[in-house]
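Lab notes, practical 5.
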Amino acid sequence: MLDVSVSFNSFAFQESDDSLVPVPYNQAYERGGFLTQHSRRIDVYSGAHTHDAEVRVRVWDMEPETGGGPWDKQDEVDFESATGDVAIWSTVHGRLPALISLGAPGRWRVRVSCSGRAEAKKVSEREGVAYGVEKYVVDFWLQR
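Output from the prediction step:
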């Protein structure tokens, strides 16, 4: 489980080697959509402006069941990794220390599922920073 600092409603998953990312995070960021796919980068639009989200990342050999939930939002995108390592980025904090090891470079499919979006927004507006209210499950699986 990772604690991800969300700021300006966003964070991103990005190829670990920044020199291989044509448009690095926070450039060409689109507000409002849940997931936005870029070359070697996935932007996530959060329900709350500033908070710490709980993110669970799982790596699979094949497409996993969608299970869990209920989810407020769920979507899938493609992700290409040249190194097999993925970094997490936040607008204010930049690159976060956690590194996701996919185990191999290649073309991956990614499913992002989220719950607690509305509650995180309420808590953030009422109390300041919400901690662990918005929860994500992020599944990566290698495309064959």
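Observations recorded by the TA: The radius of gyration is 14 Å. The helical segments are 117-127.
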